[in-house]
Amino acid sequence: KRLKGSRVFCLNPSRECQQTSASNMSFPLPSLPTLPPVVREPWTATWWVSFLQSLGTAFPAPDAPDDDWHHFVLKCSTWPFVLLALGFIVAVCVLCSTCCVKQSRGAGTRAPSRCPSACAGLMALLLLAAGAMVYWQTGSKALGTAQDELARAAKDTATAVSEGNKMQDQGQAILSNLDSIPKACPEAVRKQAEQLVKPIRQQVVDYSQSVAQFQTLMKPVPGQIKDVEDTGATVSSVAGAALLAPLALVLVCCAVIVLVVAAPQCMRPCTGCCLGALAPLVMMPTVVVVTVAAAAQLDLGIVTSSFCKNVDSNSLAYIQSIEGSNSTTYELSLYYIQGEGKNPLLEQLRTANGELVQVEDTMNKFGNQVAAFCPEWKGLPELKAGIQSAQGSLETGFSLLSPQNIYPYYDRAVRQDLCQTVVIGLGWLVLFQASVGLVALPILIRLGTKYLKDLERMQSLRDQSAFLGQRSSELARGAI
Q1: What is the 3-state secondary structure (H, E, C) of 124-171?
Q2: pLDDT of residue 271
Q3: DSSP 9
Q4: Residue 363 in contact with residue 377, Cβ under 8 Å?
Q5: 3-state SS, one letter per residue, for 26-74
Q6: Which residues contact 328 (CB under 8 A, 6 or more apart)?
Q7: Which helix (H) or strand (E) segment is 342 a member of?
């Protein structure tokens, strides 16, 4: 039974339920914040996208007022400036730590341990390796995929242009074939043949005009895609160098510190001076460079994720602003991205196909009659073969320019690579670079400097002990 004001717990279905008074009921605990989902492959952690979006704001429209752009820039730059300020503070601390290191308590003649420095160096190397791996799994692959998609798009559009050239040649061949019909007919039926051929010829002319308009729109496209591909290759190389250069600089600093700490005894008098001289010249600038790079990457990630929050609408808005609402580029973009409007390329192919179908129907009805009235004309098989060849080229053009073939280019290059893979990679790269530049490297510099100071202190105490022992021996001999 369930009593009023009580709560029933059934721990064992075979036993009678026990009742607990409402006065003993505990209040529910507040819910904890949801943690990001655990992923086996960190470079597929899509929660980075929503996290970076939360740090920014909605991407402004192309015609947005200056106040909206000012607010957007401030909102997206807030956390990068915080990271930048933190980096400069850490850089100053690094510079001071190499000059003002206190001796360890109880430092005596025992040699200091290298283990702390070795552990800090290992941690820095692991973070460097993790950052490089994340870049390889995200940035490089995303840029590589984008290049592959552009190459495939350039190949398909070049094939479409080639098929357009074939359609033009086939149209000219069909016209020549039709023009030869009246000449091959006897005088008695020549005028009838001309009247029969005239509308067919006009249909072929209309077909050729549609193909010519298609070619006018299509011919520049492969070159434009090729230019984008070449620009993308250059940007890929520059971006890879810019992203990995800070990590490489940190690697050099870590290697220098490790070599200084692990230097043999004969070189130890110079190691402390070497590290002290490198601090303002290499160590501090490295921390600043890594911080600036991490802040710039964080800003880029926030801006990109804000743009990608409504990537289709934002892309179309900026294409419309640049190319104009009546441009062919905008019409094609609207058709392929959102499936709205009309496609000028496919419209021309449909018109050409309609004209060609009418030519085929007319020739199927009257072709044998024309051949019978004009026995010297032997071009009917060639005419039918030309029409079938033109229809094959039209089908190829429809297939290459269909939304099912074109949209995957945009989906993989923009929606998947740019708006997910690249943003995820930037998030992880910022995390690892900040961890290396603001945590691991300063700790390694601090521990390395401390080790050298303790080593110098130990050597000084040993020298003092040896000197005092020698002096005591000399005084003892003099007393004797």
Answers
A1: HHHHHHHHHHHHHHHHHHHHHHHHHHHHHHHHHHHHHHHHHHHHHHHH
A2: 53
A3: E
A4: no
A5: CCCCCCCCCCCCCCCCHHHCCHHHHHHHHHCCCCCCCCCCHHHHHHHHH
A6: 217, 344
A7: none
Q: How many CB atoms lie within 10 A of CB 149?
A: 21
CA distance linking residue 386 with residue 380, whole number of Å: 10
* Maximal CA-CA distance, the chain: 155
Q: How far apart are CA 414 and CA 125, in angstroms?
A: 33
What pLDDT, on the 0 to 100 scale, is given for residue 436?
84
Going by C-alpha positions, the residue among 342, 323, 322 that lies closest to residue 332 is 342
CA dist 329 and 335 (Å) reads 10
Mean pLDDT of 107-135: 74
101 neighbors 450 (Cβ within 8 angstroms): yes
Pick from 116, 111, 105: nearest CA to 456: 111
Alpha-carbon distance values, 10 to 19, 20, 21, 377, 469 (Å):
9, 11, 15, 98, 83
d(CA 120, CA 136): 24
pLDDT confidence of residue 214: 92
Residue 196 pLDDT class (50, 70, 90 cuts):
confident
What sign does the CA torsion over 185, 188, 190, 192 have?
A: negative
Q: Does pLDDT of 8 surpass 80?
A: no
Angle between helix axes 344-373 and 187-218 (nearest 10 degrees) is 160
At 160 the pLDDT is 92
Checking if the pLDDT of 10 tops 60, the result is no
Average pLDDT over residues 131-146: 75
Phi first, then psi: give them for residue 79, nearest 5 degrees: -70, -35
Give the separation between CA 460 and CA 348, rounded to whole angstroms. 90
108 has a pLDDT exceeding 60: no
CA dist 113 and 336 (Å) reads 65
pLDDT of 92: 83
Phi, psi of 9 (to 5 degrees): -115, 125
Q: Which amino acid appears at position 143 of this protein?
A: L
For the stretch 391-422, pLDDT in tens is: 999 999 999 999 999 998 888 888 888 888 88
Q: What is the DSSP string of 209-265?
A: HHHHHHHHHHTHHHHHHHHHHHHHHHHHHHHHHHHHHHHHHHHHHHHHHHHHHT--G
Q: How many whole angstroms separate alpha carbon 9 and alpha carbon 89?
A: 57
Q: Is 8 helix (H, G, I), strand (E, B) or coil?
A: strand
Mean pLDDT of the chain: 79
Residues 6+ apart with CB under 8 A from 260: 271, 274, 275, 448, 452
pLDDT value, residue 349:
92
d(CA 83, CA 431): 11
Long-range pairs for 38-45 at CB < 8 Å and ≥24 separation? 41/137, 42/134, 42/428, 43/134, 43/137, 43/138, 43/421, 43/424, 43/425, 43/428, 44/424, 45/424, 45/427, 45/428
